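Lecture 7 notes: from sequence to structure.
We start with the chain below.
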Amino acid sequence: MTKISTKPVPENRMGQMIDQLWRAVASLETKDEVHDFLHDILTHTELQMLAKRLQVVVMLDEGFKYEEIKKALSISEATISKIQNWRQAFGKGYSVVIERLKNKKKNYRNVKSGRIYSSRTAALRMWKS
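Predicted structure tokens for the same chain:
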């Protein structure tokens, strides 16, 4: 479990550090740069946690039910609910990312059959395999 030091950092200094993090992320230009940076700055567990949070939002956006998400991602309905509530209250960033992901891949191609499926159908196939 990720922990924060009990020794406080002055609020204005923490604000500067967080701003520097935003600027660092915004400076990245390629998927490889983002990959390398996130692997440098996050633990394996933190990376998995963030990936699961994003996947919850993606699946909710695609109309999956809590039970389907719970089963696919091995997380509790309470966690799904917290993520959904956070998204509804503050989810401007999630909305931008979801739209961009949708625009990049409106359809997934099934390589074996050459058929095109809607993203929901492709996602269901992915989670069932």
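Points to note: The radius of gyration is 17 Å. The chain has seven helices and two strands.
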